Amino acid sequence: MESQTISLNVHPQILDLYEVLEKNGLHKQKEDVQFLVGYVESMEYNLSVMMNEIQEIHAEVKRLHDRGIRNQCGKIISKAEDKIHQAKTMVSVIKVRLIDAAGNAVKTCKEKGKSALIRAVEAMRVSTALSKIKSGFSHISQSMRQSAGQIDVIRGELHEVGGHMKNAGRALLGRSAKQAGNLEADKGMLAKLRDFLESCGDTFSKMERSADRLIDKIQQNEKQAKQKQSVKSDLRQLKTQRHEKSKAPVLKEQAR
Length: 256
Hints:
This protein is mainly alpha-helical. It has seven helices and no strands.
């Protein structure tokens, strides 16, 4: 629990992993972990802001004058709140796993060396984690926009009610004037709720696109690392072949 309260970019186990990767010349691997850490930090901030805002919206929805609309909007906002909680849980799980994996990678390096460290970092599956986040955020974004669409339907119904009330106002001016005031207040709150849900959908879409860009960067790093490793392997093989060729004349001379 305490690990989750500490910012990832200053968490002792993450900092230890950075140090070990740097010492072993694994700059690309360090960069991949930094990408994920920065992304998780950004997600935590965005979700925290959304959670604070939705609690304020929730309180305002309870003050809607029309009971039927209040109940409908209450269900919609509760669903949106559940989605944000799901996202926060997803991020918390990734954060804990990342911290544990960092600690295991450092321990593995101390016990078994650089090769084991490389395998341990690869086992963190940074790209896989980001892909799961991307998929989850895509679904949540769609859900938020669907909820915003439901608010549009309610606003349309309320607009029709307003039209009827204006016509009835000629006969019941005093009563209609009071109800019209409540109606306008409810319309304003519905517009605010609709804008909030649309904004949440946009934020989740942005985080989804950010995950996609990070996946591309990490895959490029992995490709470059493999190419570098392949070049090193080819050079070692060439060196061995040259060494064998240089030994051949000596062996022939000795055989004579």
